[in-house]
Amino acid sequence: MAQIKIFQSETYPSEIQKVRECILDFSESTKKELIETEYLNDYASSKLWDANSDFGRVHNKLMTVLENHSIIAYHNTRLADPSKIMCNGLIFSDERYIDSLREDMQQQNVQQEMIGDIISRVIKERDRWEHNGVNRRKNEICFIFDLDYYKDYDKFLATYGGEFLEFALESIKHNGNLKKYREIIKLGKPYVVEFTIPFSKIDRFQKQDIARYMLEEWIHLDIRKDEVAHQYDGRIEFEIPAENIIKLHDVEDYFPDMDKWLFDET
Q1: Could you read off the pLDDT of 184-210 as tens digits, one per residue?
Q2: Strands 189-198 and 245-250
Q3: pLDDT tens, 67-101?
Q4: Are 251 and 53 in contact (CB under 8 A)?
Q5: How many other CB atoms are there within 10 angstroms of residue 27's CB atom?
Q6: Whose CA, among 49, 93, 161, 172, lies 20 to 30 Å from 14?
Q7: Residues 6+ apart with CB under 8 A from 7
Q8: 265 pLDDT tier (thresholds 50, 70, 90)
Q9: Which helix (H) or strand (E) is 70 found in, with range?
Q10: What is the pLDDT of residues 207-240, one digit of tens each?
Q11: Contacts of 263 (CB under 8 A, 6+ apart)
Q12: Which residues have a Cβ under 8 Å from the Cβ of 51 and sit 6 or more positions away?
């Protein structure tokens, strides 16, 4: 089983390289459409459902080949104790997440009253997403596919505690300044977590997207002869075990735009 960075061909096993070569066998009319279409994303999104089209045929073949491999992805976070992820992997925002927030703040000697305030706000925000006993926002993990784009999601690096604490802070922000919460917001250091996702575990719609992203990349490079941005993200509804964590990337702890918004700095 190969570990694939979907936009880096040097990580492709030979069977995926062979699928890539198939796009060069597209009919001349299909190649003309691909070159002339203004919005390749829209074209690809419609054609992948047509198994008789050149695009749909190769898309289905790529989906089948990817089933035996893993995708490398990246998750932005801010950690007080990086060893937690190395030991526990990426977990859901359930009571373990709440306990971890509380423990990190206690380790930093945050006042108990403030800890209680933050925890209650986070729980309220988390539970706000529950509907008929189901809370998918709690039981999901977000990620991006290209490390070069981690800065586009820097709010998760600039603020501690993940998405639910971010939303809780936004509710506080509406009522005043966040400076008194600065020691919590800036707790720890920013990291980008590199990890693997077995393609076979991903839901079908996201599998289709991943295969489409790869095909669009190849079409840009091999047929249109231009470049494409890789600002794609995804979500999974299963946890990532510790053995799937590849590396924690240290990144610069410098987010002036976020800090200006958070703390009304000039």
Answers
A1: 889 999 999 999 999 999 999 999 999
A2: antiparallel
A3: 999 999 999 999 999 999 999 999 998 899 999 99
A4: no
A5: 10
A6: 49
A7: 145, 146, 213, 214, 217, 230
A8: low
A9: strand 70-79
A10: 999 999 999 999 999 999 998 888 899 999 999 9
A11: 177, 178, 179, 182
A12: 57, 60
E strands, 85-157, where?
Answer: 141-144
Q: Are 73 and 234 in contact (CB under 8 A)?
A: yes
How many other CB atoms sit within 10 Å of the CB of residue 192?
Answer: 20
Residue 120: burial class (beta carbons within 10 Å; 0-12, 13-18, 19+): exposed
pLDDT confidence band for 169 (50 / 70 / 90): confident
Residue 90: DSSP 8-state? B
* Rounded Cα gap, residues 162 and 208, in angstroms: 27
φ, ψ for residue 171 (rounded to 5)? -65, -35
Report the half-sphere exposure of 249 (CA within 13 A, side-chain side).
Answer: 15
Residue spans of the domains in the chain: they are 1-266
Long-range contacts of 203-207 (CB under 8 A, 24+ apart): 203/236, 203/237, 206/234, 206/235, 206/236, 207/63, 207/66
pLDDT exceeds cutoff 80 at 163:
no
Cα-Cα-Cα-Cα torsion 217, 221, 226, 232, nearest 10 degrees, comes to 10
Read off the tokens for 245.
Answer: 């964590």
Give the closest residue to 57 by CA, choosing from 30, 35, 36, 82.
Answer: 30
